[in-house]
Design brief:
Elements: H1 24-31, E1 42-46, H2 50-59, E2 66-70, H3 76-90, E3 95-98, E4 104-105, H4 108-123, E5 127-132, E6 143-149, E7 157-163, H5 168-177, E8 180-190, H6 191-201, H7 203-214, E9 217-219, E10 222-224, H8 227-231, H9 238-243, E11 249-254, E12 258-259, H10 264-270, E13 279-281, E14 284-287, E15 293-296, E16 301-304, E17 309-313, E18 318-322, H11 329-338, E19 349-352, E20 355-363, E21 366-373, E22 381-383, E23 387-395, E24 398-402, E25 405-409, E26 414-417, E27 423-426, E28 433-441, E29 450-453
Parallel strand pairs: 1-2, 2-10, 5-11, 13-15, 14-16, 15-17
Antiparallel strand pairs: 3-8, 4-12, 5-8, 6-7, 6-8, 7-11, 9-10, 17-18, 19-20, 20-21, 21-28, 22-29, 23-26, 23-28, 24-25, 24-27
Length: about 450
């Protein structure tokens, strides 16, 4: 949550366009989209993000092999193990490239070169990680110390040890010593070899993942892992579960313009800077401003006489931070959550499988939203116990169900949904539908929804 207020718990950073016009997820998918080199990718995701991920992949023309849904988060080792099990069913010796979807890699050619080196070693049985050539004594990354070169695998070295995130003094000593690299969290291995290592060093993870796949089910375009079985897996990273124990660990050092964009200062570091070392995004005007990161999501931001600050403005929140203290944003968000601030979790624009809604105004006994419904999509058939709704069509065509009536509305037409009425909103056209919804009543929370029918399988 260090990239709040842009990243929020309900819409995390890998779904956001932070380093380009595309989201980090889309950039990651496109990085391995060359069919001459890579097969169709497998995505492992939290089920809460399944529809957004599907839409984002479709938008950039990436067709996944499958999107596997985790019913609960259990860190990287179980997620990777479940994917490796699926792939090994078809090709036991398949090469598996593991890529976090929230990283930036600026030099794709260097990435592909490093991947080819790692693949050569992986075919021989190595479990390869990618070590990033360090630029500075960073304390936010783990480190890898390389050992001897691996015979017959140019550019690949055995691993002497993994080092936890050091303090600055220790990090500087590692850089001075040489032979140390940032741990990128990317891996390449043969599926059967990795699974054998999991069976040896983390058998509880292997057993839980096998059972979760045995209990899995298809849900639209998704593979839903069995919840009870997957929840029994220890929550553990691949580093702790396998890499720190295996005798097959190897590292390919690489300088590929990598960043895990874990903070606003990291985005400043990789951003395009003006003559005063400022990175600005959006509608920003500056005067006598230096060494700062300023981002305006919707509003104009004007800054005078500041230095080494991060300023991020969204439509419902403003962040001001010293550029050297952006790691503390996470603690700030935790405090917002303790206070029950909805801005810690949700954007004013909330994505749903049928489209999105955005809060425009709210007050005693009323709330105004803009609702956008994708072509051909429809909301659940539902009713409310504590609110009525007024709908005004501002763009497109709406098909409306209210109790036993079904009718269409066009631009500038409106209708009223009485409290307690069974109703549904649909978009029957091939163009987006925008409506303004005015809710009135004693309670306006999203949990005042009783779904009677839902094409997306949501209950309640």
């Amino acid at each position: 949550m260090r990239l709040w207020p842009l990243s929020r718990r309900a819409y995390p950073k890998h779904l956001l366009p932070l380093a380009s016009e595309r989201s980090l997820l889309q950039d990651t998918a496109l990085r391995v989209s060359d069919g001459r080199i890579f097969e169709k990718p497998v995505f492992v995701a939290n089920e809460a993000y399944r529809f957004v991920i599907g839409e984002q992949l479709q938008a950039v023309g990436v067709v996944p092999r499958t999107i596997m849904l985790e019913p609960v988060g259990r860190n990287t080792a179980p997620a990777i193990t479940a994917a490796a099990l699926v792939l090994s069913r078809e090709v036991p010796e398949a090469l598996v490239l593991v890529l976090p979807s929230d990283h930036v890699i600026e030099n794709t050619e260097a990435f592909l070169t490093a991947t080819a080196m790692a693949a050569d070693a992986a075919r021989r049985g190595a479990i390869v990680t990618f070590g990033i050539t360090p630029k500075s004594p960073e304390t936010g990354y783990g480190y890898i110390k390389s050992a001897a070169a691996i015979a017959g695998s140019p550019g690949c070295f055995s691993v002497a040890r993994f080092i936890e995130k050091p303090d600055r003094t220790r990090a500087q000593a590692l850089l001075s010593e040489g032979g140390h690299f940032w741990n990128s969290g990317m891996f390449l291995f043969r599926a059967d070899r990795y699974l054998a290592e999991v069976e040896e060093f983390a058998p509880d993870v292997a057993a839980a993942c096998r059972a979760a796949l045995a209990e899995s089910s298809r849900d639209l375009d998704f593979l839903r892992l069995g919840e009870q079985a997957f929840a029994k897996s220890p929550s553990i990273s691949i580093d702790y579960a396998v890499m720190e124990h295996t005798r097959a660990a190897a590292v390919v050092p690489a300088d590929m313009g990598w960043s895990d964009v874990g903070s606003w200062s990291a985005l400043w570091a990789i951003g395009r800077k003006d003559g005063q070392s400022n990175v600005t995004v959006g509608s920003v005007v500056t005067r006598d401003v230096r060494n700062s990161y300023i981002r305006a999501d919707r509003h104009l931001v004007a800054a005078v006489g500041i230095e080494s600050l991060v300023v991020v403005v969204t439509d419902d929140a403003v962040l001001l931070a010293g550029k050297d203290r952006t790691e503390e944003v996470k603690a700030l968000v935790e405090e917002l959550e303790r206070r029950g601030q909805p801005e810690a979790v949700l954007h004013s624009k909330v994505h749903r499988p049928w489209g999105s809604y955005q809060q425009i105004d709210v007050g005693p006994r009323f709330q105004v939203k803009r609702i956008t419904v994708k072509p051909g999509a429809k909301l659940s058939l539902q009713k409310h116990a504590k609110r009525a709704e007024h709908w005004v069509v501002v763009r497109g065509t709406a098909r409306v169900t209210i109790d036993d009536r079904i009718f269409e509305l066009h631009e500038n037409q409106s209708t009223y949904v009485p409290l307690g009425s069974v109703h549904r909103l649909e978009n029957p056209s091939d163009a987006p539908l925008d409506i303004i919804e005015v809710q009135t009543g004693s309670y306006l929370g999203e949990d005042d929804i009783v779904r009677l029918d839902d094409v997306y399988g949501r209950a309640g």
